[in-house]
Amino acid sequence: MDVELEQRRDMHKNNDYGGSLENGHGDNNVDDDGREKRMGTLMTASAHIITAVIGSGVLSLAWAIAQLGWVAGPAILMAFSFITWFTSTLLADCYRSPDPVSGKRNYSYMDAVRANLGTIKCRFCGLAQYVNLIGVTIGYTITASISMAAVQKSNCFHKHGHVFNCGAETSTRYFMMIFAAIQIVLSQIPNFDKLSWLSIVAAIMSFAYSSIGVGLALAKVGGHGGHPTTSITGTIVGVDVSSSEKIWRTLQSIGDIAFAYSYSNDTLRSSPPENKVMKKASLIGVSTTTVFYMLCGCIGYAAFGNNAPGNFLTGFGFYEPFWLIDLANIFIAVHLVGAYQVFCQPIFSFVENYCSINWPSSGFINTEHELNIPCYGTYNVNLFRATWRILYVILTAAVAMTFPFFNAFVGLIGAASFWPLTVYFPVEMYIAQSGLPKLSARWIWLKVLSWVCLIVSLVAGAGSVQGLVEELRKV
């Protein structure tokens, strides 16, 4: 991460809003720091957290609990929930520096890391963030294609019956190409990241397909087709899996649960103090999410037992009512079409700003060409922006086609991002800002938490890598 680039972008933003204050003219539309007035409240912050956290990660929870069992599964899910909430409260105190109430605002995660931990760790934070964003866009390509293929598969079963080999006619790679083609078009839309309706659509889609999944699982549990095998320890060695598979799948399932938890900040009003409001919002948001996750994971496990599918919506053993299965998978695909853009826009912005600043005289990078489009008006075409965004979408689709394995890839993303972004940086920033004495009781407790989470992330990552390798052998 180029620190100079970040600083220039901050200066540009300050110039956008700060002129009227510097000249002595107050403006009701700007905040006390000269930026656009923040209107976030406890309710909107809680809603944003719920919307951000509940996503495609919920689809793998039934499989994860099937590997862990009735005791370890819910316990580990609750442990991740507590850790996410706790570290989010530490992060809330770092929104302002050096004082959490009256200090200078940090406008991004990286700004907070730079203010509390310095430039070098800021660069590591940037690397972790962008690697995570790239991984998520690849994961979304895989997930969306699986859902698209599931629609075709359920319609095939409905038309030809369950004895027909519908799986042989379904290729996720074909749907990955369709998904990539859609993203190539959407990635050229200017200011796509500022379309506020995306969050609303994402929230509706997330709750819709998750609720359909829970409803279908409940229907299966209450049905008359017998009850699948479940156990306290999950999949049974010698029956469902071998001893080595049990170990690797257990580790991979931890990564899947880690992927299900992520975090989002909101632009809160300055009064009451943002950190206090954000802590309450985190409690509401993470608690609500955990209840929903428990429903999806536990009811999904009860419905499918130790043979729970990796994606509990696309792997249903029954395909009726087929239209409801189709609807749920369409919701997933629609959600991920927009979510892909939400996650790739920061990557686009960083690369384009970096190149513009470092090669200011390049016409290919900086020249805007006006194109008149009927019924739209003037559209500015930048050859570098258009070319590089197309190449990025193609690259993520190519990686997804190479590793089209939902659970293993999701577990790898979760394992790689959970420790640095959810645990390490919030803990280190809190220690630095609060000035905790070294080797004090609280300092030791926080360090132990960080190291334990690092070990968990490493073993979960190892399990996911082994899962990818094993899946590749089967291809």
TrEMBL record:
Composition-biased stretches (Basic and acidic residues): 1-15
Gene Ontology MF: a single term: symporter activity
Ranges where the Amino acid transporter transmembrane domain occurs: 40-469
Keyword line: Amino-acid transport, Cell membrane, Membrane, Symport, Transmembrane, Transmembrane helix, Transport
Primary location: membrane
Keyword field contains Cell membrane: yes
Swiss-Prot/TrEMBL GO biological process terms: amino acid transport
Subcellular location: Cell membrane
Pfam families reported in the protein's UniProt record: Aa_trans (PF01490)
Superkingdom: Eukaryota
Bilayer-spanning residue ranges: 45-66, 72-95, 197-219, 281-302, 322-343, 390-419, 448-469
InterPro entries: AA_transpt_TM
GO cellular component: plasma membrane
Region: Disordered, residue numbers: 1-35
Homology family: Belongs to the amino acid/polyamine transporter 2 family. Amino acid/auxin permease (AAAP) (TC 2.A.18.2) subfamily.
PANTHER family associated with the record: OS05G0424000 PROTEIN-RELATED
Identification of the protein by name: Amino acid transporter transmembrane domain-containing protein
Organism encoding this protein: Kingdonia uniflora
